[in-house]
Amino acid sequence: MRRNLDINVLLFNNRIYGLTKGQFSPTSEQGKVTTSTPTGSIDPPLNPIGLALATGATFVARSLDRDPRHLRSVLLEAAGHKGTSFIEIYQNCNIFNDGTFFAQTEKETKADNVVFLTHGKPLVFGKNGDKGVRLNGFTPEIVALTEGESTVDDLIVHDQYAADPTLASILARMSDIPGMPHPIGVFRSVERPCYEDLMAAQIQAAMEQRGDVDLQAVLSEGETWVVE
């Protein structure tokens, strides 16, 4: 992600190592009891979105395995992005960690536990669209939109194309704050030269500067020795 290779990275996050029979993973909740942590994990969970943003990733998003329409739209946007696209996908593991993201994926609870990120739109959520997220300094907080104290004009307006990643980083931390909705959608989408393009340009410039070079002459120049 730091190099911005032109690839798509999909992280299926079910908070467990399911294929190896249920060991705790870097995203497992603290205190998670598994076969490898029988008395509970002492490690705080890693925030994949926060890590991606910290590396300077140019496209960072999150979607849900149980929302194929949204997942499809994010995958298409990622595929069209020039550079590294990183997508975290909330996924269930019905054997070793069943229901891990059900609050964010189930019809009965999803609306109150997820806020969808749409560029240029305020962060509104809730079954009746009656809640919002505003900033109190650099701390996001939930406000009610039906009590007259706050309106949509007070809310965070999402900007996925912002050059500065500060807002995206604040949104990434929301999923670590108890009681806050988990942001779903594209956190950041910016342009930066790809590693392979920069490397090809560097090689071309070196070739133009040095001209045609005899490889054997390069290997033989300077101090050499023979091993018998």
Written description of the protein model:
It is a single chain. By secondary structure, the chain is of the alpha/beta class. It has 7 helices and 8 strands, in the order βαβαβααββββαβαα. Helix 1 packs antiparallel against helix 5. The longest helix is centred in the last third of the chain and has 16 residues, at 195-210. 29% of the residues are buried.
The portion of residues forming beta strands comes to 15-25%
Biggest β-sheet description: 5 strands, mixed
Multimeric state? single chain
Outline: globular
Q: What does the radius of gyration come to?
A: 23 Å
Taking all residues together, what is the mean pLDDT?
95
Total of DSSP H or I helical runs spanning 4+ residues:
7
| Uncertain stretches | none
Count of the separate structural domains: 1
Strand order within the widest sheet?
1-3-2-8-4
- How do the SSEs run, as a string of H and E? EHEHEHHEEEEHEHH
Distance between the termini: 46 Å
Specify the helix fraction band: 25-40%
Structural class: alpha/beta
How many strand segments? Answer: 8
